[in-house]
Amino acid sequence: MNWPEFEQAQPLAAKVLTSSIQKNRVAHAYLFEGEHGTGKRAASMLVAQSLFCSDIQNHGVPCEQCSNCKRIKNGNHPDVHIVEPEGLSIKIDQIRSLRAEFNKTGLESKKKFYIIVDAEKMTISAANSLLKFLEEPHLQTTAILLTEQPQRILPTIISRCQIVSFKSLPTKVMTEKLIEMGIHPTKAPLLSAVTNQIQEALHLEQDDWFARARNIVLKLYEVLKQSPLYAMTALQSEWNGHFKERAQMEIGLDLLLFIYKDILYIQLGKEEQLIYPDQRKKFEADAFRISAGRLSEQMTAILEAKQMLHANINPQLLMEQLMLKLQEGASFV
To answer: Residue 260 to residues 60, 263, 266, 279, 304: CA-CA distances in angstroms?
Structure first.
């Protein structure tokens, strides 16, 4: 994503950041909050480029061609650091290492910049360590915290950050944009449901893994209607081998949830909102056979499985439990 694309996708966020950069009033810490796919990480890299660019353009837009811009984009600038969860959390040792690094003089300038991805996943000790860092900010140091769940971040940390909200593009608008860009009308609704970012949607459309994921999930749904044995066999033969990482499993659960959403849309007479429009006839038949109450229980079971995915639970066991719950029409206890 470049700056013009950022301005188009997130006009309010871009306006706030552009104004700060132009007036040389960049805050020492920002909190970028918004749903997945709204471009928070890409925007944070653009801000870094703006601060380090050696050939800054009008309105504070980075040139994206100088050495600094290119190295930041490629993730190898010595004064730009990214902290991400190790496993399920961001640990205190990661924050300590970051603080130690920032006590050193910048390798190429006095500026230093760091991004904390999924900031809500900091342990309590890590969050408190970061808080001390934010309370005594170093000169020419800029921090950006990224989160989808700001309510899980310490209020004392939030109070020391300038909050920049990233809004989701309405699904209908996103779908229309993708179709205008050449995406097939049967694919665009699903891509719009998975991500709110145009570039990520275009990447997924070309991704063989994602295409296969869609087919595996649709097949799993069909065997779920037959017997527990068929469902468990499908898990072993296809699901487990394809959805290997937790992030991939989360996408798979979303794809499964969207099927039940479509059935609900059909029951409510909202066929224009279907996420799998090419499966309409199959889902219509199911919509007449399933009660609204059972459908609600099945959707709840999937949502609870997504939450449990981030806990210390065996993913394979989690999926086996989910298959039973979906067939029983009950939710997790």
So the answer is: 46, 5, 10, 12, 14
CA distance 66 to 199: 23
Task: Please determine, for residue 277, whether its predicted confidence score (pLDDT) is greater than 90.
Answer: yes
The two three-digit tokens of residue 42, written as one number: 């890409």
Comparing CA positions, the residue from 256, 257, 254, 274 lying closest to residue 265 is: 274
Contact 160, 153 (CB under 8 A): no
In tens, the pLDDT along 157-193 reads 999 999 999 998 788 889 998 999 999 999 999 999 9
Q: Determine the Cα–Cα distance for residues 90 and 213; give it in Å rounded to an integer.
A: 29
Spatial distance between the Cα atoms of 8 and 25, rounded to a whole number of angstroms = 23
Q: How far apart, in whole angstroms, are the C-alpha atoms of residue 18 and residue 55?
A: 16
CA–CA gap between residue 53 and residue 314 (Å, rounded): 45
115: amino acid identity, one letter: I
CA distance 32 to 304: 26
Round to whole Å and give the CA distance between 126 and 89. Answer: 9
pTM strictly above 0.70: no
SS3 91: coil
- Quick one: pLDDT at residue 230? 84
Give the DSSP letter of residue 86.
B
Query: Could you give the percent of the chain with pLDDT greater than 70?
Result: 97
Please measure the distance between the N-terminal and C-terminal CA atoms of the chain and give it in whole angstroms. Answer: 42
